[in-house]
Amino acid sequence: MGAVYRLRFLGDLYACCYLSLVEVFSCVVGRLPRDCGAPLYIVRTYGIRAFGHHQRMKEFELEPGEHVVLEARKHWFLFLAELLPYAILAVIPFALPKLLALVPPLASYATIFDYHTTLARAILGVWLLIMWTSAWGACTKYFLNVWVLTSQRIVDIKQCGFFSREVSSLFLSRVQDVTTEVIGVLPSLLNIGTIKVQSAGEDVEFIMHGIPRPEHMRDLILKYVSVETKSTGV
């Protein structure tokens, strides 16, 4: 069992980029049971994590000794709230004829939305395509907009459009103050808030809106701010 725990520990170091795959194999070969399949175990268990780490590093490069602490996106409730208008607008063309039929003065207009003609179907198709594209844009922004807290900085990855992305970062050694705001009944129930990070010598705040568990994120930032301040001697 000790060999298995050692393998898991080495795999964690590899996933965090503290060790290369060659260094892991050099530590594993000859020290584990022959039937445990060490190389295959490492590839299966940590291949996906390493791939995700490689994909994230395309946005920004980690400094030597730097590691990712936490990734945060907007709360899922805000994501559903953004999709709700598109879902309602997509259903309206199908529900409108039945709604008009319930009102006698407007019942004659219900035949306009029968979609039996080619033109009506084409208009309906264009309308649904617009709604689908808009909803897909909201999904893209939700999954690609991410705040990354590393051991040395805060990185804000913002998807401005389908083919436009903005990446900004703030080093923890320059952080002066971190505040959280939770305003409203629903945000209080769902624990959704805003984090404002004030940097030293600048009037611009690093603001993160719609963060789930903002107090947890704030505590992590302050924790690594103190660690980074001690390491840099600032």
From TrEMBL:
Question: What residues form the membrane-spanning segments?
Answer: 76-96, 122-144
Any idea what this protein is called? YdbS-like PH domain-containing protein
What broad taxonomic lineage does this protein's source fall under?
Bacteria, Candidatus Kaiseribacteriota
Q: Which Pfam families match?
A: bPH_2 (PF03703)
* UniProt keyword Membrane present: yes
Q: Mind listing the UniProt keywords for this protein, alphabetically? A: Membrane, Transmembrane, Transmembrane helix
All copies of the YdbS-like PH domain together span 147-221
Listed PANTHER family = BLL0215 PROTEIN
